[in-house]
Amino acid sequence: MPPEALTFAVTARDGKARAGKIETAHGSCETPAFMPCATKGAVKGIEPRELRVAGIEILLSNAYHLALRPGAEAVARRGGLHKFMSWDGPILTDSGGYQVCSLAARRTITDEGVTFQSHLDGATLKFTPERVVEIQEQIGSDILMPLDEPVPYPPDPRTARAALDRTHAWWRRSRATRGALFGILQGSVDRDLRREAAETVAATDPPGFALGGFSLGETPAQMYETVDYTVSLLPDPKPRYLMGVGMPEDITAAVRSGVDLFDCVLPTRLGRNGWAFTEDGLLKVRNSRYAQDDLPLDPACEGPCCRNYSRAYLRHCFNVEEMLGPRLLSMHNLYYYGRLMKRIRAAIRDGSLGAFQPWKNRRSP
Amino acid sequence: MPPEALTFAVTARDGKARAGKIETAHGSCETPAFMPCATKGAVKGIEPRELRVAGIEILLSNAYHLALRPGAEAVARRGGLHKFMSWDGPILTDSGGYQVCSLAARRTITDEGVTFQSHLDGATLKFTPERVVEIQEQIGSDILMPLDEPVPYPPDPRTARAALDRTHAWWRRSRATRGALFGILQGSVDRDLRREAAETVAATDPPGFALGGFSLGETPAQMYETVDYTVSLLPDPKPRYLMGVGMPEDITAAVRSGVDLFDCVLPTRLGRNGWAFTEDGLLKVRNSRYAQDDLPLDPACEGPCCRNYSRAYLRHCFNVEEMLGPRLLSMHNLYYYGRLMKRIRAAIRDGSLGAFQPWKNRRSP
Asked: Is A94 a residue of the active site?
């Protein structure tokens, strides 16, 4: 991998936490960074220019979904995913490894790779370690993920062992690329497996590390502990990405352990369903208590939704099923996450991350 | 009605067509103007600030729907509809008269008024001519509509006669307001009834005239002819609003007859369903021919959708059911309508409206 494909510089530290900057061929992002999910090439209901307003600098997309529709070659012919979706910043793509779990009923795993039955027309789709890297190259991804095999919690020990061996075998087959291909560490909540994963992958000196296999049923405490342990085994100067996590307190805890990148569907999924992130916790906007509430969703927020709309109006939009409601709450939540990461980076620079509280309430929905 | 509630000035003429300006307590709009439908207090999926980008200066909302949810008093307590929905321009509200037709199975008409059975919970809602004006005052509407009784085409002559008599009886009962209450002319496609309507309503000197009872099944030719005849009977210096119309060629024809205001759900409804207005006609974006088409929806359009997204990308969004697709096409179509009205106003000022063609194709879906 040519070193120019991705650079990472740490600019401030607070304990194990670091603030820094990732540079790619499509511009840079400050870390710790949150990546909204443009799984199929669009963040649900939100335009790229609106993501910029929310302080978002890097997106996640998904090789499996784009390979299905419109097809990796089709994206390539349109000039790549950046041009196709009109986003000029960095894009990280997941490999389809997560779909090994989420589409468990529709796939077969062999040492060769994963065979999916398309959820659209039943067609057979073969994902090999080689092919998923090729797909991401065709798409024009800035940060690529190898094919991996996460296991749901609680794992059967033999299953976790076999999945880790396969993940490492696939990793060895998947490295022939000019792109910034991160190594993925699996191993569920087993410290020995996580150590083996960290050592095996670190030995190959990838440009960054992804921590996979979380948010799959384990408790927050198990996740925090395993993340902290795993990150402690990684070489310092490479970016670390905690896949599919998560709630503000999860992100805060992982940043304290030294994680730099996050993605999660929660801000848009919860927004579409009427939940707003605020400094006081999650607000259920459909609640009738807000019918006469002229405050913005979060009085501490200066985003476009909170500057223009009251809780009463947003509740009304959900109440009468106006699509503006899901859209405005998705935007608000992305703005919340953009601001959360800014606050976290500022706390690292100030040396105050230890006392940092993302919000007053604990996890809700 | 105090004369300061609404002023209308004609600034240019081309045949019977006029360009002008309506001033209200919430700012002005240039005419001929198109009003997007914010039926329930939101243009579907689109923010007010985006309407401004599309060149939209005036909105339509609906007293019936807002009276149901959140209730007229609730809107009043929130500071009125403008503040509630964050739109600072003029708002015209329909009375619920249209729902006399569209919700025919759920209402009973008597001389007293219309009783609706709520489509939500079966509750009985009584709309009298007095009450619908009061609702619109509570909402804070800039241009109010009286309760009326449109009849679907083809009308039974006795039904049309009775509906017109009732519309006029309701009109006489509904005028005690300080707001700009337009008179509504009914009479289906019957010239005698339309003449009677024009004379009856004009005799009361309202601040403007609404032409109701169109787009209810009659042919375009019947509509054009009846509109042209009816407008010819109206006093010149008052604004004229053709309710619920329509396609670009319908608007162009009605402007040529001297109509100043239009509303229609088509730009957003067709947009949500994957149809884009272009200078070449309606484009069905789901069509597989666009899968590899890098052109914008309308190469002649400089709106935000056409500047940023290709037909191939928009087709992909519809194909994978991303909500960004309906939203972007709705925005594009509203931009098309905003630009259409600008082009029409320019043609009137140039004296070239006779040769004006809104688009190359004829009506489609």
From this structure: yes
Residue holding tokens 């992305």?
Answer: A334
How far apart CA A138 and CA B64 sit, in angstroms, is 53
Tokens of B161: 């006669």
Do the Cβ atoms of A166 and A109 come closer than 8 Å?
A: yes
Give pTM, 2 decimals: 0.96
Structure tokens, B317: 């969004």
Place A228 in a pLDDT band, splitting at 50, 70 and 90. Answer: very high
**Could you give all domains of chain A from N- to C-terminal order, each with its CATH number?**
33-264 (3.20.20.105), 271-331 (no CATH)
The residue type at B28: S
**Contacting B residues, span 85-104, partner chain A, CB-CB under 8 Å:** 85-86
**B221 and chain A: CB distance < 8 Å anywhere?**
no
A12 touches B at CB < 8 Å: no
Do residues A248 and A359 touch, judged by C-beta distance below 8 A? yes
Pairing mode, strands B275-278 and B281-284: antiparallel
| Mean pLDDT over the full length of chain A | 95
pLDDT value at position B253? 98
Alpha-carbon span A363 to A351, nearest angstrom = 25
Please provide the DSSP assignment of A134-189 as one string: HHHHHHT-SEE-------PSSPPHHHHHHHHHHHHHHHHHS---SSEE-EEE--TT
- By the 8 A CB rule, do B1 and B178 touch? yes
Average pLDDT value for residue range A226-255: 97
Which chain A residue is nearest to residue B327, measuring alpha carbons? A45
- Residue A173's alpha-carbon distances to A131, A170, A176, in angstroms, are 10, 5, 8
Compute the residue count for chain B: 365
B74 touches chain A (CB under 8 A): yes
* Closest C-alpha among A215, A38, A57 to residue A139: A38
CA distance A322 to B47: 12
Catalytic annotation on B94? yes
Reading the block at residue B346, the tokens are 């320019």
CB contact under 8 A, A292 and B77: yes
